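Structure in, sequence out. Go:
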């Protein structure tokens, strides 16, 4: 199992996101999610990487949808290790968008 590399991934001014989808994607999908680290386990794929702004995040979500993948979870990773509940929350419009992708 790969160790999370949260601190080494913070390159710019964006936010690090952890995106989980159903299915174990092959490395071939790496080009579709350039700049994101992929980890597969237990029938799921976890994409982790910096998202510079909301349009970038929407682009990733659009690719997930276009590939027919089911989104399991999406959340930001805190800049420093903190307890639960310290990461950013998703706004209502993002929550509605995620619901529509899961349909």
């Amino acid at each position: 199992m790969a160790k999370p590399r949260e601190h080494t991934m913070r390159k710019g001014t964006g936010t690090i996101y952890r995106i989980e989808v159903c299915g174990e994607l092959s490395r071939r999908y790496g080009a579709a999610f350039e700049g994101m680290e992929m980890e597969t386990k237990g029938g799921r794929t976890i994409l982790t990487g910096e998202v510079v702004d909301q349009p970038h995040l929407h682009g990733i979500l659009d690719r997930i949808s276009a590939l027919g993948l089911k989104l399991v979870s999406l959340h930001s990773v805190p800049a420093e290790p903190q307890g639960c509940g310290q990461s950013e929350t998703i706004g209502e419009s993002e929550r509605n968008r995620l619901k529509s992708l899961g349909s």
